[in-house]
Design brief:
Layout lengths: L1 H14 E2 L2 E2 L6 H4 L1 E4 L3 E6 L2 E7 L8 E7 L2 E2 L14 E4 L2 E2 L2 E2 L13 E4 L3 E4 L5 E10 L5 E11 L8 E11 L4 E4 L17 E5 L6 E5 L4 E2 L6 E2 L5 E8 L2 E10 L10 E5 L5 E5 L7 E3 L4 E11 L5 H19 L3
Antiparallel strand pairs: 1-2, 3-4, 4-5, 5-6, 6-7, 6-8, 8-17, 9-10, 9-16, 11-13, 12-13, 13-14, 14-15, 15-26, 16-25, 17-24, 18-19, 18-21, 20-23, 21-22, 22-26, 23-24
Helix pairs in contact: 1-3
Amino acid sequence: MIRAALSKTARLSAQSFLGVSLLMVFPLSALADWQQDDRSLTWKHGEQVVWRFSFDPDRGKPFFDPVSINDTRLTNFRPEDHPWHYGLWFSWKYINEANYWEENRESGRAQGSTRWSKPQIDRRDDGSATIRLNLTYTHPSGRIDLTETRVLQISAADAAGRYAIDWKSQFVAGEQGAVLDRTPMPNEPKGQINGGYAGLAARLAAAPLKMSVVTPQAPITTFVSDRARPDAPAVAANFSDQGRAVGSLAILAHPGNLTQNAPWYVINAEEGMRFLCSAVLAPAVRTLPPQGKWDLSYRIVVQAEPFTPSSLQASFVSWRNSEKQISGTH
């Protein structure tokens, strides 16, 4: 399914997102300066690194860092408090009781091993790219408990620097099946205040930048112990420096990921951790039977201006409409 829709998706993503044309912007020579080696793909605009995707086999996960807009870096890579936080990345917490999230501070390896093939990369002169890679999730016993096909489509930027990353993954359980688990939620037996996280996550810029968070319904103004768990189709983090907006990052979750709105795990500590996670396991532990599948789809939008509830909702609707065009549904 992912491959069948890919060529059409690439054309639509290259033409528009958020209802904004991406073709008539800057001369192509001014838009993109690619840097690629056997460990990463980087898109620069002048001296600015707009984004970098790392597939370095010496790291614990593939990831995007930095993710930036107009010289403002919005992601935070391997901070001292959580050196297994990789900017913008995906990780399960537990698969068949093995921990894939936390890593040993010295070795940089988790109990369960996340490994990947050399990616197939299609980069284009306008700064857009498609990245395909296959991942395996290997139990400490050596048994492969889960595989993943991941397709990342990064749009060209528009005249304001806005761009999007479309992230699609298909997971297939191994011969023993896969129990996808997490730290218990606060209202569960042995629940923890930080329960529920696993999946697509972003560790975000720290102080002195200020961060505020909105959903399509409303701004999030209540945080308990710096945490919030909104039930919404999307969340956005807006950053400011001395009252001046400097950049925003939103994550939009496809409604097909779950049978309900995506739950989120959000941390917004004024002087500490800023974190967004599409916590797909928060409602319940998920068990995939042998060869069972789970498709997850997201869009990450990066822009200079702050998101409002209405603009975030418009971004979500525009994305869903483009998805319907691709699939041919109405």
